[in-house]
Write a structure and sequence with these properties.
Helices cover about 30% and strands about 25% of the residues. The protein is α/β, with parallel strands linked by helices. Helix 4 packs across helix 5.
């Protein structure tokens, strides 16, 4: 679980990096690993520290895909569950690197499995986002590891439909998602922050040798999570 302190941002961006919001997304993202029953009840010790209302889990159990939505103040949070910590090594060993065409930008290709998983889950949360936007809510999307991959595809999709309400995403340990054309295009759409801890292996996959590239705005934290660097072109 990630906890942050306040440091000066080194670059002025239209929607500046917020450590407070990153902390909130990280904590909410950790709770995405809980059972649907726990999420719905919102009564665990960490839950009680986060004033989230109307938590609603979603998922496809047969495919081990899940997440939840919930409201906090003027925001709707959309969180995707990441890879279980005890299964990260198996997930890495089973990871394939096939790319498919991405429909929204010319020449863009993305990881076939991540994109298929996003498309499978989209119908589980889209109506909730639409309702929140109709009520004037800002939508914040996040996740970790595989959940971060799903969050990026989700936020890009939602920003196309609700550009005034979907403008930022915070993701922890996001893998590379597509080729250079996709990375360049996605980086221009909205503020997507990739939080990376110094020794996390997941952001190094899939490998650059297979033409995978990261979207920009990496927020790199040192070992004790005491300092960060903002890297706009981080490959």
């Amino acid at each position: 679980m990630l906890f942050f302190t306040v440091f000066e941002l080194v670059a002025a961006l239209p929607y500046s990096y917020s450590e407070d919001l990153a902390r909130t997304v990280a904590q909410l993202g950790a709770l995405a690993h809980c059972s649907p029953e726990v999420i719905s009840a919102w009564s665990c010790p960490l839950c009680k520290k986060l004033p989230l209302t109307n938590p609603q889990p979603f998922g496809l159990p047969d495919f081990n895909l899940s997440g939840y939505t919930g409201t906090m103040g003027t925001r709707l949070f959309l969180l995707f569950r990441g890879t279980e910590p005890e299964s990260v090594i198996n997930w890495i060993e089973d990871l394939t690197f096939e790319m498919v065409a991405y429909p929204h930008c010319e020449g863009c290709r993305v990881h076939a499995g991540f994109f298929a998983s996003f498309k499978a889950l989209r119908g589980q949360y889209f109506d909730r986002v639409q309702q929140a936007v109709s009520a004037g809510k800002e939508v914040v999307v996040g996740g970790r590891s595989m959940g971060a991959a799903l969050a990026v595809f989700a936020v890009l999709d939602l920003a196309r439909t609700f550009p005034e309400h979907v403008r930022v995403s915070y993701n922890m340990g996001c893998p590379r998602l597509g080729n250079q054309q996709f990375a360049d295009w996605a980086s221009k759409q909205l503020q997507i922050y990739r939080l990376v801890h110094w020794n996390d292996i997941v952001p190094h996959l899939p490998p650059r040798t297979l033409n995978y590239r990261h979207i920009s705005r990496e927020v790199f934290y040192d070992e004790p999570m005491a300092n960060f660097s903002l890297c706009n072109d981080s490959g």
